[in-house]
Every structure is written in C-alpha cells, then in structure tokens.
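tool_log.txt
---
The assistant was asked to compare two proteins side by side. It first ran the structure predictor on the initial sequence, then on the second. Raw inputs and outputs are pasted verbatim so the downstream comparison step can read them without reformatting.
(1)
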Amino acid sequence: MTAGKALSRRLTAELIAALAGEQPNVIFGGRLGSCKYYDMDDAIAAALELAEGELG
C-alpha cells in the first residue's frame, strides 16, 4: 500500500469515527464502521457479533 493510500484510509477512518460520535443512537459496523474490506460471510459474522455485544 502506498503512503498516500494509507493516509487516505486513516483520514477516512478518523472522519467516520468523528461523525459516529455525533450519532449516539446509531451503530456503525461492517465495512463502513471498521474501514476495511470484508467478504460477505465475514461481514455477516461481524454484524451478528456487534449486535450481540450491543443488544445482549
């Protein structure tokens, strides 16, 4: 990965984290919330794990 791409990903992650902090009743998960690529089965597993952690 190039330095420019790494910087872009870091800034995107920081922007998403800042925006998420302004939305107390919204949970950001999946590709958007973690700022990384997921295969569909991994995305579903991560969503279920997040929901279980948040909802009990």
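(2)
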Amino acid sequence: MDMKRLSRVGYRFSSDQVSSVRIDAAVLMAWNVQFVKIDATVILEQAKQDAEIVRA
C-alpha cells in the first residue's frame, strides 16, 4: 500500500530525525505527516543563527 491509501484508512505519519528547520509544510500535509521530530539542538542552533542575523 502507498501512503495515500494508508492515510485514507486512518494512518498518520511522522518524520523522524529531521536535520533542518527549513520544512515545506505543504508537502508534509500532502503526505499526511502529522508529527515532525527535530532534535532540540537543531532548533536551538537555528534560533541562534536567526538572532545573529537580526543583530547584524
């Protein structure tokens, strides 16, 4: 079975070990991905980079 057929019968999906916060939400929604697991260090590093850009 493919993901579309599985989602029609109620399966929900997650994306694990995501290494970037640059995520295409529309694609995830199309694949019926309900959960995205991102390591806290990835999120914190992106927040630090964003703060440096704002200060510049």
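---
observation on (2): The longest helix spans residues 40-55. The longest strand covers residues 13-18.
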